[in-house]
Design a protein that fits this description.
This protein is mainly α and 309 residues long. Helix content is 72%, strand content 0%.
Length: 309
Amino acid sequence: MINTNKFVAWLKLSRVPFLSVGILPFILGALLYKKIYGDFNILIFLLSCAAVLFIMLSTYLNGEYYDIKEDILSGKLNKRNKFSGGSGIRAMGIISGKYIKIVSYISITFAICIGLLLQFYFKTGIWTIPLGVSGIIFGFFYSNPPLRWVKRGYGEILIGYCYGWLPIAVSFYLQSGLLISIISWISIPIGLSIINVILLNEFPDYEPDKIAGKTNILVRIGKKKGGRLFVYISILQQIFVIISIIKGFPEEILFFYTPFFFISIFLIIMVLKNKNYNKKQLEFICGLNIIVNLGTTFSYILGLHYLTF
């Protein structure tokens, strides 16, 4: 029989709800291809989607394994919220780090095998493996030594690439063997929004991360400058939504994006008022911030209906 408690613990470790921030842009890329060319290879889509899930799963598990010191401190200092500080599963000793690491390596192995299958059996194009490898290098090694991007002060930018341009481009490329400019223009607002998700989620962990020597961008610049950076990135995101329309995406996206624009403005006001220093309000802000990210991607998906070439 399945141990229900262990099963739930593995689900929490896998951060299942957060898989959506990578899968939704991947769906956007596939639908963009279908809108332009009319056909769609469902098998390639499903296989590549599985590879993306395996890479994200491995990334999240590595975070749980290698950020143990910070996660324990988050619990002790009562800093953890629903969106930061890890799941707490390893920190509480519910699942051994050994098994977490094993599953992480199994996941990345599956992803590599799928990539090889797509490249050499389905012949999806010469950039299949290089694009996949970039996702592995920046995702798998985000927390994993020796690269451990999370402590280098620009790991957040790499996350913007991995959850912005990369999934849209890969999904489109695997179907078409091509990359077109509109991919970059629609990916920038999505990438900026996920950078802000990571940045804001670092606020609850600021003290534990600083004590543990995890030198992410917030630890490097401090909370005050981090709040300003969040505001600047939010404004830049709105600007690039408009630029994507100028570059050819249908203006109807504004109809779908408007609710998320106003949520973003609300978040800017909350951060300018330093509401992100309050634990309860910060958790609420972090939740809304993820909605902005998902809503931005979803707005582009809905806007595809009006796209003409």
